Amino acid sequence: MYHNYFGLTEPAFSIAVNPHYLYMSRQHKEALAHLIYGVQGGGFVLLSGEVGTGKTTIIRCLLEQLPANTDIAIVLNPMAKVMDMLCAICEELGVKLDSPSPNMKHLTDALYAYLLNNHRKGRNTVLLIDEAQLLPADSLEQIRLLTNLETTTQKLLQIILVGQPELNELLSNPRMRQLSQRITARFHLKPLNERETRAYIVHRLRVAGISEGRNPFPSAIIKRIHSFTGGIPRLINIVCERSLIGAYGRNKTTVDKEIFDMAKQEVVGNISQSKSPYATQYWRKTAAIASSIAIVLSLVVLYFLLSDAELEARSLSAPEPINAGVPLPGPTLDNEKSQLSKAKQPNAAPQSMASNTIREATSEPPPAEPSSYFFTDFNSAQIQLIKYSGHKSKHQSRPCWSLSKQRITCEESKLSTWDELSKINRPAVLRFTTAEKFLSFAILIGIKERSALLLKRDNSQQAVELAELGPLWTGEVFYIWQRPPGFEVPLGIGSRGTTVKWLAERFAILDDQPEALTDRDFNAALEERVKIFQRLHNLKDDGLVGRQTLLRVNEALGLDTQLIKDF
């Protein structure tokens, strides 16, 4: 059908999982390397990511690279009951059960005997659980106990957990700390950026047999595809497939704006009628907001369906923007009074024809160019933030790699409010989506009341109103901090190791005491000291030491660069 029309030997954008089509972006290569390392090292391996980012494809690729002496059990639909889960694992591995009605002991004994026998034969055993975020805590705990099956030299069972971001939230629970501590490799897949989206589309077309130099998707259409899909590979496949069908139906060799809009409208219709809402980095997957998602997507469609004539008329009637070529924040839906006040601010971006008219009437000088504090490249913003924080990175393309040797950790979080960012109290790279739906980044180095202090590309500083940044901020932040040695999960009574020792020694420094409260065991004395510290710093005084408490400890010791609060 249309495949031959475009010179393809097979569908290029099928949503079926096919490792042959796996596009190995930088992060996909890192994810696969983490998984291969983790499987060889024993214990748990964790791969997480949003729906449609390629987790299953990477797992299939991993399975193809496993040694021939590997037996694997794959559980695709995690069961709610522990017994059902163990039965499914034994059935996958072909474990023979002596009892027709086995209990927990029968199952674990039979599984242990199987693993020992496999080990004697020189074979490795791997358990892979997909959609692991659906597992209840009891089942996860039983799976953790399976890793206790070991010889004096190695684990008898390697376990791969694959799930959506909710799995990370589940494992961060203090109750799950024993399991989390056994994770030897973990990786979180993110959506593709615009450059990766372009490479992804070209890669799939080439694998499907398209001739060299031919591409039915022009650059402008690829930008629209990335903007619409948010970089989710599965959605890219769907909209590209519909676009090719549309081009074939209209006897065109390339996809134009009209064809793409029609394809997008079809996809939007499918999404709005879907019984299983999905999530991207912009749309969280919950049934409660499914209708809101449909409304937002419909508005996006309406925006792109504006006629070229209307757009041209607007561009002719509006003055030329100061920083043409760089995506700028668009107007906020505010009242006339706030628009007037924004027009008078020297740092405000040109908002609309109305704001320019106000500026002309008041004879104010033109506003400062906001592009001076916006970065179009996330990597450049990372590097400048690292330099501002007093550190150096030898890897320009992967700045966080060399930082890890200095025990400096790169963190990425999704926040909801400026208050949450203020509590982190670290300079951060913020991700924005402009009115034109382009990604841009800014380095925030200070915050107070209603203002933010941003680091510009020339290393100078500029104050900007939070009201101007808020509507464009996606909530995503990147920051760095000095992570204590060995810290992976929250600490509490019963924890032991190098992180506990580090914490006790730091409290001894803060209290000017000659000896620490403990050596490597988290005891009652250390817990009480932690509670006192938490109360002094307006934290929940539960005695558990997580990231927020450690951030405050670092601040007390002057270890990390903090946000400027007085500017």
Can you characterise this structure?
The protein is of the alpha/beta class and 567 residues long. It folds into 5 domains: 26-189, P-loop containing nucleotide triphosphate hydrolases (Rossmann fold, 3-Layer(aba) Sandwich); 193-304, Helicase, Ruva Protein, domain 3 (Orthogonal Bundle); 309-364, no CATH class; 372-482, Cathepsin B, Chain A (Alpha-Beta Complex), CATH 3.90.70; 498-545, PGBD-like superfamily/PGBD (Muramoyl-pentapeptide Carboxypeptidase, domain 1). The protein contains 23 helices and 11 strands. It has helices at 2-5, 26-41, 55-65, 82-93, 104-120, 137-146, 166-171, 177-181, 194-207, 219-229, 233-249, 257-273, 290-304, 308-317, 336-344, 353-362, 378-388, 399-405, 418-424, 466-469, 498-510, 524-536, 547-557; strands at 43-49, 70-75, 124-129, 158-163, 183-189, 408-414, 428-433, 439-448, 451-455, 461-465, 473-482. A 6-stranded antiparallel sheet has the order 6-11-7-8-9-10. A hairpin with a 5-residue loop joins strand 9 and strand 10. The longest helix is centred in the first third of the chain and has 17 residues, at 104-120. It is flat. It starts with a helix and ends in a 10-residue tail after the last helix.
